[in-house]
Specification:
- By secondary structure, this protein is mainly β.
- It is built from one helix and 34 strands.
- The strands form nine sheets. Strands 2, 3, 5, 6 and 7 form a five-stranded antiparallel β-sheet that branches. Strands 10, 11, 13, 15 and 16 form a five-stranded antiparallel β-sheet that branches. A five-stranded mixed β-sheet has the order 29-26-34-31-32, with no helix packed on it.
- Strand 10 and strand 11 form a beta hairpin.
Length: 427
């Protein structure tokens, strides 16, 4: 009897260890559910993707599908920082947010991360259907790019246009824009500003907005409710010539030699191709006035920046661009009406028109310094949004820095007399 009880105990222990091991293996790193927002019913075959914050080349996204109960799981997740996004046919895609902070969409993963209840409530998509025709009233043909665009307000109260959905026409010039949340949209061909623009088999069509106008100004807006389908959108387009812009960047002098240059045409979507002779080609540019900003890089460090403007009319254009080196911005922070107020730990940032940005904590002496500042025009911001402090004013070189009069930093320019004034807004 003793022998068999011992054997049974060993078998039982082995069985329990096996269950524990199996449970550990089967314990997913992410689990959740996808349902409809209007009635709570499960969404089967919804796709959940983990989107890395940096995508290089043809990335293979980690993907899961929901079952008949709307449930999904990721058994294991690669280390990294990801957006968790759910999508399904007939619904608006949705990104998971853990909170309302600016970084709330991002989730960091390592082998110890376990997330439960990463749920989604998908809203029904709205749809816009229409046709693109040429000036003779005939179908414009296939592969013409069409986008639905919405207005988005920025922190400085200005607005920008954000493409929400894109499509290509078929051989009869028909297009369908899907996945739209409820809202109001503009519809444009080869826009805005060249977004997703495409040459079809015959050539280029001019950027044209619904209402047959060249820009958002005067365009017809399309209001949509959740699940609504709007048809009858007709856009008439004309052909246009496009040209190459050949850019010859150089500099900055007196520092490490750049190994590459980034090119950005402000308020214009475009690509650029580096040539063996050191030039860069920006293809397929329509006639217009453009501002070009180039950033020089040495390895992973930016070493300079330059800006120039040019016009494209009826031929290719060659542009010479000399880049300047890095500068420095510094100064002090004080609280209005409280001379001895301690402001250490407050975070001040500078942001350029071209998107360059830095942030610094104010030290115990109320001072801050931004080094490695690219040439350009800058505005100051107060980060972290302290509950009882707001940014009152900024002066540099004796001049007020405002949205309409930003701080210009030149080639290797050092500006160390900036004064940032804060004001207390409450207790």
């Amino acid at each position: 009897m003793f022998f068999y009880r011992q054997q049974g105990s060993v078998l039982f222990l082995t069985f329990m260890l096996g269950l524990a091991t199996q449970a550990q293996v089967l314990d997913p790193q992410i689990a959740g559910r996808v349902v409809r927002a209007d009635n709570g019913m499960p969404v089967q075959d919804a796709t959940i993707q983990l989107l890395p914050i940096t995508i290089i080349g043809r990335a293979q996204f980690q993907t899961a599908k929901t079952d008949r109960d709307g449930e999904y799981h990721f058994q294991s997740v690669r280390d990294g920082v990801f957006l968790i996004e759910a999508s399904a046919e007939g619904f608006v895609r949705q990104t998971h947010r853990r909170d309302d902070s600016p970084e709330g969409e991002f989730q960091s993963f390592d082998s110890s991360t376990r997330l439960r209840g990463v749920d989604f409530q998908l809203k029904r998509e709205a749809v816009i259907r229409g046709v693109v025709t040429n000036i003779e009233g005939k179908p414009a043909g296939s592969d013409v790019a069409v986008a639905a665009v919405r207005k988005e307000k920025l922190h400085d109260e200005s607005e920008r246009l954000v493409p929400e959905s894109q499509a290509k026409t078929d051989v009869s010039g028909q297009f369908v824009l899907r996945g739209l949340p409820a809202g109001s949209y503009f519809v444009c061909v080869n826009g805005p500003d060249g977004y997703n623009a495409a040459r079809n088999t015959v050539g280029w069509y001019r950027e044209t907005w619904y209402g047959n106008v060249p820009s958002k100004e005067g365009a017809i807006e399309v209001p949509l409710k959740e699940g609504q389908e709007q048809g009858g959108v007709r856009i008439t387009v004309e052909r246009e010539q496009r040209h190459r812009v050949v850019v010859w960047p150089s500099g900055p002098e007196g520092g490490p030699k750049p190994d590459r240059y980034d090119l950005i045409l402000t308020k214009r979507n475009h690509s650029s191709i580096q040539q063996a002779d050191g030039s860069y080609v920006i293809p397929d540019m329509p006639a217009g006035h453009y501002t070009l900003v180039s950033t020089a890089w040495s390895g992973v460090q930016y070493v300079g920046q330059g800006e120039t403007s040019f016009d494209v009319s009826n031929s290719d254009v060659s542009v010479q661009l000399q880049l300047g080196g890095l500068g420095e911005i510094g100064g002090s922070v004080k609280v209005e009406g409280i001379p001895d107020a301690v402001v250490s730990g407050v975070i001040i940032s500078i942001e350029s028109d071209e998107g360059a940005a830095q942030a610094r904590h104010v030290d115990a002496g109320g001072r801050f310094t931004f080094d490695r500042v690219l040439p350009g025009k800058y505005l100051f911001r107060l980060l972290g949004e302290p509950s009882n402090i707001a940014l009152r004013s900024v002066r540099c070189g004796g001049a007020q820095v405002t949205k309409d009069s930003s701080l210009r930093v030149g080639d290797r320019q050092i500006i160390m007399d900036c004064e940032v004034v804060l004001v207390r807004t409450g207790s």
